[in-house]
Predict the structure.
Amino acid sequence: GEDVEQSLFLSVREGDSSVINCTYTDSSSTYLYWYKQEPGAGLQLLTYIFSNMDMKQDQRLTVLLNKKDKHLSLRIADTQTGDSAIYFCAENRSGTYKYIFGTGTRLKVLA
Amino acid sequence: DVKVTQSSRYLVKRTGEKVFLECVQDMDHENMFWYRQDPGLGLRLIYFSYDVKMKEKGDIPEGYSVSREKKERFSLILESASTNQTSMYLCASSLRGLGESGELFFGEGSRLTVL
């Protein structure tokens, strides 16, 4: 189907790792993205991965891509209260301007 | 600092009113987008534009129109607002060429309430 699926909520304790999962739809998607939305704000790009990669690491963030299962995950190490936000995964269909966004996962970090 | 600016953060309108949502970007991007965001539904594309005076329908264009007279400005128009158009509206822009990641730059959003 057309839906990019994410769980709606995740709650973790400060200092723990968070893992946010996403199942996307189009195996030909060129780029896959993670965006962060803080309260009352627009979305900001956190990181992205090109479809020929399996993993990308950027400081506390690790992105894993399993193309066979169309599964994308975002791991945040040493989660802080400032990481509390909504996280959206998105895919970009090859050769198009079309981006498909997931429903967003609301991450709550408990002190 | 790159910027996408949406002119109104909060609007309250009555059913049947005409509503204009304005978006300006200062990055010389070719592509501009309007999305609406609703809880549990994520972001849904209303319209996008890949050049001045060019526009294409997204997934939910019904009840909306757009205008792109200048490269930096993309307007969303609700000809006759209805209560089911109460939502958060997000404008975005991107630069897309060979080797570009296609990152979308978002404005802060316009929360519209239709009574």
Observations:
- Chain A touches chain B through 24 residues (CB under 8 Å).
- The mean pLDDT of chain A is 91.
- Residues 16 and 86 of chain A are 18 Å apart (CA to CA).
- Chain A has no helices and eleven strands.
